[in-house]
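Revision sheet: C-alpha coordinates.
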Amino acid sequence: MYRLVLGCISVCPLPFRFILRRGGVAVASPMDKVVRGKSTLGTTAFGIFLVFGAVMASLAGTTLIWRGTVLDGIWALNATAYRRLAPLGRIVGILFPLLSAALALAGAGWFKRRLWGWKLAVGLIVTQVLGNLANLVMGDVLRGATGLALAGALLYYLLRPAIRNLFGHPRVSSVDEVTTK
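Predicted:
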Protein backbone atom coordinates (compact mmCIF):
# COMPACT_ATOMS: atom_id res chain seq x y z
CA MET A 1 0.00 0.00 0.00
CA TYR A 2 1.36 3.42 -0.92
CA ARG A 3 0.64 6.59 0.94
CA LEU A 4 1.77 10.10 0.06
CA VAL A 5 1.99 12.72 2.76
CA LEU A 6 2.24 16.29 1.55
CA GLY A 7 3.81 19.04 3.61
CA CYS A 8 2.03 22.19 4.72
CA ILE A 9 0.54 24.43 2.11
CA SER A 10 1.87 27.93 2.70
CA VAL A 11 -1.55 29.60 2.70
CA CYS A 12 -3.08 27.49 5.46
CA PRO A 13 -3.02 29.07 8.94
CA LEU A 14 -2.32 25.76 10.66
CA PRO A 15 0.05 23.00 9.55
CA PHE A 16 -2.50 20.64 8.00
CA ARG A 17 -1.28 17.62 6.12
CA PHE A 18 -3.21 16.05 3.30
CA ILE A 19 -2.89 12.29 3.23
CA LEU A 20 -3.72 10.55 -0.04
CA ARG A 21 -5.06 7.05 0.41
CA ARG A 22 -6.81 4.55 -1.83
CA GLY A 23 -10.17 5.55 -0.34
CA GLY A 24 -9.68 9.27 -0.96
CA VAL A 25 -8.04 12.21 0.73
CA ALA A 26 -7.93 12.58 4.49
CA VAL A 27 -6.94 15.76 6.28
CA ALA A 28 -4.89 15.43 9.43
CA SER A 29 -4.26 18.28 11.81
CA PRO A 30 -1.59 18.52 14.50
CA MET A 31 -4.28 17.83 17.11
CA ASP A 32 -4.65 14.32 15.67
CA LYS A 33 -0.99 13.51 16.15
CA VAL A 34 -0.19 10.57 18.39
CA VAL A 35 3.22 10.25 19.94
CA ARG A 36 4.07 7.02 21.61
CA GLY A 37 6.01 8.00 24.68
CA LYS A 38 6.75 5.85 27.66
CA SER A 39 4.17 6.10 30.40
CA THR A 40 5.52 7.06 33.75
CA LEU A 41 3.94 6.57 37.13
CA GLY A 42 2.99 10.26 37.15
CA THR A 43 1.33 10.24 33.73
CA THR A 44 -0.60 7.09 34.54
CA ALA A 45 -1.66 8.49 37.92
CA PHE A 46 -2.85 11.73 36.32
CA GLY A 47 -4.86 9.81 33.72
CA ILE A 48 -6.48 7.78 36.49
CA PHE A 49 -7.17 11.05 38.33
CA LEU A 50 -9.05 12.36 35.28
CA VAL A 51 -11.14 9.18 35.00
CA PHE A 52 -11.83 9.18 38.74
CA GLY A 53 -12.92 12.82 38.52
CA ALA A 54 -15.31 11.88 35.69
CA VAL A 55 -16.89 9.14 37.80
CA MET A 56 -17.21 11.41 40.85
CA ALA A 57 -18.72 14.29 38.84
CA SER A 58 -21.21 11.88 37.31
CA LEU A 59 -22.12 10.55 40.74
CA ALA A 60 -22.52 14.06 42.16
CA GLY A 61 -24.73 15.11 39.26
CA THR A 62 -26.87 11.98 39.62
CA THR A 63 -27.44 12.58 43.33
CA LEU A 64 -28.35 16.24 42.76
CA ILE A 65 -30.78 15.51 39.94
CA TRP A 66 -32.43 12.46 41.54
CA ARG A 67 -32.60 12.97 45.28
CA GLY A 68 -33.59 10.41 47.86
CA THR A 69 -31.64 7.50 46.39
CA VAL A 70 -29.18 5.18 48.08
CA LEU A 71 -26.37 7.25 46.58
CA ASP A 72 -27.19 10.29 48.72
CA GLY A 73 -25.05 8.86 51.52
CA ILE A 74 -21.93 9.64 49.50
CA TRP A 75 -22.39 13.33 50.39
CA ALA A 76 -21.30 12.51 53.95
CA LEU A 77 -17.76 12.84 52.54
CA ASN A 78 -18.36 16.51 51.74
CA ALA A 79 -21.40 17.74 53.67
CA THR A 80 -20.45 21.41 53.19
CA ALA A 81 -20.56 21.10 49.42
CA TYR A 82 -23.91 19.34 49.63
CA ARG A 83 -25.37 22.12 51.79
CA ARG A 84 -24.24 24.66 49.18
CA LEU A 85 -25.31 22.68 46.10
CA ALA A 86 -28.56 21.04 47.30
CA PRO A 87 -30.67 24.23 47.15
CA LEU A 88 -29.65 24.64 43.49
CA GLY A 89 -30.60 21.01 42.84
CA ARG A 90 -31.29 20.09 39.25
CA ILE A 91 -29.84 23.30 37.80
CA VAL A 92 -26.38 22.52 39.14
CA GLY A 93 -26.93 18.78 38.82
CA ILE A 94 -27.15 19.12 35.04
CA LEU A 95 -23.73 20.79 34.92
CA PHE A 96 -22.00 17.88 36.64
CA PRO A 97 -22.54 15.40 33.76
CA LEU A 98 -21.02 18.02 31.45
CA LEU A 99 -18.00 18.22 33.74
CA SER A 100 -17.92 14.43 33.84
CA ALA A 101 -17.91 14.26 30.04
CA ALA A 102 -15.07 16.81 29.84
CA LEU A 103 -13.01 14.86 32.36
CA ALA A 104 -13.69 11.54 30.62
CA LEU A 105 -12.77 13.03 27.26
CA ALA A 106 -9.57 14.50 28.72
CA GLY A 107 -8.75 11.12 30.28
CA ALA A 108 -9.25 9.32 26.98
CA GLY A 109 -7.10 11.85 25.15
CA TRP A 110 -4.51 11.67 27.91
CA PHE A 111 -4.14 7.90 27.74
CA LYS A 112 -4.01 7.98 23.94
CA ARG A 113 -1.35 10.72 24.10
CA ARG A 114 -3.39 13.12 21.99
CA LEU A 115 -2.40 16.76 21.99
CA TRP A 116 -6.03 17.82 22.45
CA GLY A 117 -6.23 15.57 25.54
CA TRP A 118 -3.29 17.39 27.08
CA LYS A 119 -4.81 20.78 26.20
CA LEU A 120 -8.18 19.82 27.69
CA ALA A 121 -6.51 18.55 30.87
CA VAL A 122 -4.56 21.82 31.19
CA GLY A 123 -7.77 23.80 30.65
CA LEU A 124 -9.58 21.84 33.35
CA ILE A 125 -6.76 22.33 35.85
CA VAL A 126 -6.52 26.06 35.02
CA THR A 127 -10.25 26.30 35.75
CA GLN A 128 -9.64 24.58 39.08
CA VAL A 129 -6.82 27.00 39.91
CA LEU A 130 -9.13 29.95 39.16
CA GLY A 131 -11.89 28.43 41.32
CA ASN A 132 -9.45 28.03 44.20
CA LEU A 133 -8.32 31.63 43.77
CA ALA A 134 -11.97 32.70 43.99
CA ASN A 135 -12.37 30.70 47.21
CA LEU A 136 -9.31 32.38 48.62
CA VAL A 137 -10.54 35.86 47.71
CA MET A 138 -14.00 35.15 49.15
CA GLY A 139 -12.48 34.34 52.52
CA ASP A 140 -12.36 30.55 52.49
CA VAL A 141 -8.64 30.67 53.19
CA LEU A 142 -7.99 27.06 54.20
CA ARG A 143 -9.83 25.46 51.25
CA GLY A 144 -8.64 28.11 48.81
CA ALA A 145 -4.99 27.89 49.81
CA THR A 146 -4.96 24.08 49.95
CA GLY A 147 -6.75 23.76 46.62
CA LEU A 148 -4.53 26.39 45.05
CA ALA A 149 -1.39 24.58 46.19
CA LEU A 150 -2.61 21.21 44.88
CA ALA A 151 -4.03 22.49 41.59
CA GLY A 152 -0.98 24.70 41.10
CA ALA A 153 1.30 21.70 41.57
CA LEU A 154 -0.74 19.72 39.02
CA LEU A 155 -0.58 22.62 36.57
CA TYR A 156 3.17 22.89 37.04
CA TYR A 157 3.46 19.14 36.37
CA LEU A 158 1.35 19.37 33.20
CA LEU A 159 3.29 22.33 31.82
CA ARG A 160 6.72 20.76 32.28
CA PRO A 161 8.43 20.22 28.91
CA ALA A 162 8.95 16.51 29.57
CA ILE A 163 5.20 15.98 30.00
CA ARG A 164 4.21 18.33 27.19
CA ASN A 165 6.61 16.59 24.81
CA LEU A 166 4.90 13.24 25.44
CA PHE A 167 1.99 14.65 23.47
CA GLY A 168 4.20 15.79 20.62
CA HIS A 169 4.73 18.94 18.68
CA PRO A 170 3.27 18.98 15.21
CA ARG A 171 5.98 18.20 12.71
CA VAL A 172 5.70 20.08 9.46
CA SER A 173 7.81 19.04 6.56
CA SER A 174 8.31 21.23 3.52
CA VAL A 175 9.39 18.20 1.53
CA ASP A 176 6.88 15.59 0.46
CA GLU A 177 7.32 12.23 2.11
CA VAL A 178 6.54 8.95 0.50
CA THR A 179 6.06 5.95 2.70
CA THR A 180 5.43 2.42 1.63
CA LYS A 181 3.82 -0.44 3.44
